[in-house]
Amino acid sequence: MASCISVSFIFIFTVSVLLISSALIRPTSCIPLPRTPQFDLDLLLIGDAQSVDSASSVQFTDPGASSSSSGLLLRTKPFRFPISFSTDFVFSISSHNGDGLALVIVPADFLPRFSRDSFGLSREKKFFGVEYDTFMNVNVGDENANHVGVDVDSLNSVAVCNVSSINLVLSSGMKVHSWVDYDSSSKRLEIRLSEFGSPRPYNPLLAYQIDLGQLWKGKEVLVGLSSSSSSPGNSMQNTIVYSWKFSLRSIPKWLHSEPLDPLRSSPKWLHSQPADPQEFSGEKGKDIKILDNIVWGLMRFVFVLIFAAFVVVLLRLVLANGGNQVNVVPAKGSTNPGDFGYQKVNMVVDGGLDDIKH
Ligand SMILES: [Ca+2]
């Protein structure tokens, strides 16, 4: 009987904990975005985000929600900094009260902490964001309700630009196009914004120096577009994204500030030792060393063969010259006195020897 009561207590306790947890924790739905040419693949719809207009666009918040609403369009492929990225998206924000839209980079395990307010980031301590803010929150230092801001671990932006300076109103309901580029070598972030249909502006609306590699310290991150609104008693802001492209660019390895090693540019078989011990360590290193030895052995063997052939040819030439020496020197051209015949010439001298003496 006692054990039965204990089991019942554990069951009731467990159910109660689950019910309370489900009430406290933001329920999130993860729905793949239908494949459309306006969006990259591998995207998930989180929270109140849903595809609308035959999956041609994404609506982030639920205008009919009673209290607050938030939605996230999340790219499911994690990545790590340092890396460069370029992204652009077209969106519209209705003129109702709401936070606007944000490009967010969050830890790879962020989803359980996605919330209903503050672009879904109120329960996340580590994030990077570019906010298109349409609500003036004095508590985080917002200067107006129409600005672009750069957020690092806080919605109190580290850099801000008034969108009114380019004669745009984010919450006008009109489509706008934004480009965000980050170069990891120069550590420069650039944000551009224009009315939809206009060309990409040459000058960024906001540029900011930030080392995202230092911020994330090699941790896996995810990127997404997020929106939230809370306006009890009033109709809520409706944020729609019509297209989103995101691409990463790695830094070429040779651009890293490593000392220049001239041995790297020559074939590996020229080295008796590997140029980079780490690169050729382990079994791979052993294989390459064996290959080096084989190539070196073959080169020595070929060299010996060539040398031997040269010596043989030279000897044959020398011997050949010695055996045919008579034939080589023409007989008529001989200067050897022994080759000439002698003929005795008899001279008759009148007067005898005495006449000669006189
Ligand atoms: Ca705000």
Automatic annotation (TrEMBL):
Molecular functions per Gene Ontology: carbohydrate binding
Annotated Legume lectin domain residues: 42-259
Pfam families reported in the protein's UniProt record: Lectin_legB
SUPFAM superfamilies for this protein: Concanavalin A-like lectins/glucanases
Segment forming the signal sequence: 1-30
InterPro entries in alphabetical order: ConA-like_dom_sf, Legume_lectin_dom, Leguminous_Lectin
Keywords: Lectin, Membrane, Signal, Transmembrane, Transmembrane helix
Transmembrane segments: 294-315
Family recorded in the similarity comment: Belongs to the leguminous lectin family.
Protein name, as recorded: OLC1v1023197C1
